[in-house]
## 1
Amino acid sequence: RAAAVVAAAFLLGALPWIAWNVFVPLGSFSDNFSVRPASGLHALAENLRYLVAYSLPELVSSVDSESGITPPSRVALLLRVPVLVIWVAAALFALSRALVALAKRLRERKADSPPELPLLLVAVTICALTVLSGAGQIRGLTVRYVLPAFFVLPAALALAVVAAARTVRAAAGLGAVAVCAVLTFNVYGYFLPGSAARRLWEKRMDADTALVSFLQAAEVEAALGEYWEAFPVNFLSHETVRVVPFERGADFYDVEGALPAGPLRWALVSSTQAELMRLAGMTGTSGDLVEVGQERWVFLPASGPEEARTFVKRFREAFFAAR
């Protein structure tokens, strides 16, 4: 009966994933680094180091989730270390509690398994898969790879607070302070109305809209830009203006391959004026440089329409040569 419940729960939870692999035959398993093993012992060691040094701390106490795009609040900076210590203490408590219960079960066959064992196994499995697979070798904003492990931690914190309160009455107050610190840190992580981060993103939203309008008014048919500048335009314009990312591996929707044949009216988009000036100078291309909004710049080459193959090749080479 228990196995049937587990199987039904798995099928229900995995239904979107199963449906995707039916409609796109085994799409999750083709050209996917998450199903490839790590490339060697050195990669395993680096994956473990990155998990401990970046992924797990960023998962529970992030103050800069977008790597410099959004400035953190002062409250978040003040609480980051205490919150990280609280989560580490809660995780160690849950781990020690589970190990003690398992040791007792091995000694006494009739002893019960700890009720939190399934949650602990979820966290361990997620971390192990990240270390052992090729996904762990990807660097950047990869905290989402270990995201399911986060849902174990509130249970661990609750167990630790309750156990401490039952052992020492004064610890109940400390537990309450710990919970309040975590909640305060998490609340300040949201882009709340009126916050500096929210106002900045509102300006960026307006800038993206202005960028799309400018490109459409200029009758630009295709453009080049970094990943973070390219895809907002593709989505907001419904691909009436197609922006190809400089990073070939980030062209997940094959925007470059979907470009029409023949010469196209091109533009370059960037968050900085300096980058566009550098690319224009390196390729010897003249044209107009326009600021259209918050951190949104456009370069319109004066050379006229050009085929995608030659335009993309020239500026992509210049982009990576400047790095």
## 2
Amino acid sequence: AVKGSWQGQQWRGLLAPTRLQLPNGSWQLDEAVDLAWPGAGQQLSIEGHCWRQSQAQLCPGELLLGRSGRGSLEMAGDMSVLTGLLSTGAKLSGDLQLMLEGSWDAEGGFLASGRSETRSVLLTQYHGEGESASVGWDRGVAELKYDRSGLHVGWALQRDGRKVLGLELLLPPEREQALRGTASLEQVQLSTLSALVPSLSTLEGSVSGQLQLSGTVDKPLAHGLLTLSDGRLAMAGNPTELESLDLKFDLRGNWAELSGRGILGGGELRLAGQLNSEPELRLEVSLQGDEHSVLYPPSTGLLLSEDLRVVVTAGLLDISGNIVV
């Protein structure tokens, strides 16, 4: 509860110690918070304080509210407090430190900056029948800055002691204005994502690349090259593997050209095609291969060669060409 009174020309008050019951737990304010308002046209001052629960604490600094003002926020604790923001069946754990500060003036100008650091993060999605899939990273750092030019975002993830993902991005203040940025992937191991694709019994390979980002918020564009090296995958319930898979994705704005080759059932498989995002998302790939030994459990084996054209759009899969058995 808030109690206060006028003391001369100034209003003084207190926010009493209290407890809030939220979906992510009970938050406790242990000490009273001073409130002060000098009068009309002046700033309301709220003393810095901390809300605590079993896994984290949230500490607003001194807050000045008015036509101009400033404020700050610090948070530290376990990321499990954010689980309520995730989809049903998801669980998040790891250490989080967050610092934000901002200010505004009477002319409508707003400045803000922040930094977050996460460590030992694990995101787990639980499925039916006791099954689950997890992905995580050792350390993540994000830095934010907002000014008249827009929102500046810097983000990096480390796994096994090395940087694997990086992002530098400027989001403009208006949606129709141009964005710009860069993204990098450095030997991202697909095996870390295998638990999220239960239809595959094997998912391996290393993805690297550098991208230049442009376009607008509604129509982002990417230019650059992504490569998959030494890929290996197999469908659940089928022992036939696609291995030694090397792919290149040449991104050219709103479309990409892909090419590569691998070994399927002992025979070479060659791939080439395009991925387009306009006027609709469309993937067109040609597949050519010779003498693939393909097993169909429990005891059927085929020797295949193919020359196929595969087109995938929303809700449609079209396959045409020749298969020699």
## 3
Amino acid sequence: LSLFMLLTGLDGITGITLFTIPLAGAVFAEHFVNSKQRIASRKSALIVTRVLVLVIMSVIGVIINNKLAGKLVASYQDANSSFSDMNSWMDHLRSLPIDWMKLLGVKDLPDVMFTDEKGIPNLIAILASLIIAVLPIIATCCYKKYGKDRRGRMMRIWIWIHWAVTAVNLMGYIFGVLSIAEWRIVPMIGTALILSILFVCYSVPKKLDVSRTAILLMIPVIVAGAISCNDVIKMKKDSYKQNTQYMLADFLKEEGMTKGYATFWNANSITVITGETIKVRDVYADSNGVYMRNYQSSKRWYATDPLQREYFLLLTGSEFDEFSCSSVYNADP
């Protein structure tokens, strides 16, 4: 676990907020919230020591990460840790339920009947998404019913982990900029699902009052998961290769192009897809012209190859419209 926390620290602020704080905080809170535990005791001292070891190992990981990174600035990650406009907070909050359901398989099907072939699976996905949100609350309400054994303690720790991850995730989603992409609330969905499964697995053997209710609530979740698995099985082999990046890669191969430039979403992906037979480097392209982008790049990639006869510039329609207004383009269109 100490090694894991060290590796967590290597991920910087993301690892600290999503792993170190929830885990260390959960171990600490589970013990000290229990009024039956004496604060001044050997057990309390042992818990504090364990928490400190977890935190120290994460801090060491952060220090190593900073040494390895040198002067590299993680602007993308830093941007995710900043506040958004206060006037947008309510909009972020309103979009949370929809984003939650989207990530759990709910589809936008306007004018489709509930009883249609597509409508029924969607209803099941909606129900499953709501249950995954509710089960952790039920598990928390049963907090005092968990025994003193190892399984009971792990249930309490997982409850603290889930709510800590949820709090951190929601802080960035509502008050920050995480709402730009719904997948950024995956951590809280993940801990909600894990806690839901653990709660059912604990309550049934222990015959808690809510054990039968928990089993019934898990049925739509299991069915929704089975439907998703069936959808994956039905997918045609290599169907993902029909996306824009693969089509662009095929086009560039046909044209005999091997080196060029594009903006972020089309640059590195094509390089990886083609196994570097076509090397596309990331650039900014706007009304000021085209210039190197340092993010996830090396300066060596932008050095001119004397053996390369021509380079290409790959832009979307909107990017080209903006670039065509630049003095660089107008000087040599």
## 4
Amino acid sequence: GEFDAASSDYAAEAGGTGADGAADDEGLFSLFDDAEDSEGVESAPVTAAASTGTTDEKKFEWWGSLTASGGISFQMFPEGSTSPFAFMSNTLGFTAKPFDDMVVRGSFYSEFPEFNFALTSLYFDYIMNDLLYITAGKTGTSWGNSRIFDTNLLDDEGDGKVVNPYADETATGNRFDAILTLPIWKGEIQGVGMYAIGEEISKDNLSVAAKIQYPFGPVSVELFGRKWATSDAYYMHPAVGASLTTDIFRNHVNLWGMTHFSPDDIKDLDFKPGISRFVGGVSRVIETNAWGKFGIAAEYQLTYDPDKAEGDKLTHDVGVTFGWSHALGSPFSPAVR
């Protein structure tokens, strides 16, 4: 369990949230996230360009938040253990509107007791002819809509790992993003160029990704792909995939799949899937006036590794997480996860 003391945000809009995020799920699961501009897994500030995050008259605003957590962590398997913990994080940012069709955003993050300090974001949103959305800078943009297993295609280190709600805010490193988003009726096409800033300027430091998302009634379908930078320390073959999200009787359902492939196999007309993953999950949030907010998420992950030398090439993982929080009519909120 843990005991949170969190101040209210003041003008705390720091970019938008991805179109795939479920509003009901976001409220509960973000209670346990330290990042101010985080929806747990997905955040796409480019889609917020039409909303300045300021009032009609204001051209510049400061915003911020302070979160402190303390409690006890219980580990039951494989060996039982109990350990206390304490954590405090602070985010300070700004939103500026130098022109009617441009917004500039930035944020600075610090945490204790690790004493980590970082410029977490500094980018601009620009709307061209009310049609094309352009974002450039250090954005920390991520894709994915899972709660337990990491499906963020833009996270080099996240392939197959469990999502860590207390992840280091500086994980994106010195990465410059250029994002183009083209709305298509109710959906959108988005392209992302990610440049890893190094000692030398080279095209080998550029990674590119693209996705197309469109809702068909209550079902949102997304097709995506990525090509990794040649110099990337986590270099992998290109990957393509698809995801499907919907709500069924107030249960948020997410299906996601991705496979890597060798470009040489495509040239030789001999396609062989490389490392592949499938993640399927369901989550539910229930709010009550008397007992607070409850949430539960369960996910299944299937991993196929054709290059695995020993053992089964298929790996199965199952994860379950639950949460409860109550505001108690004050800034102090007891919470259990």
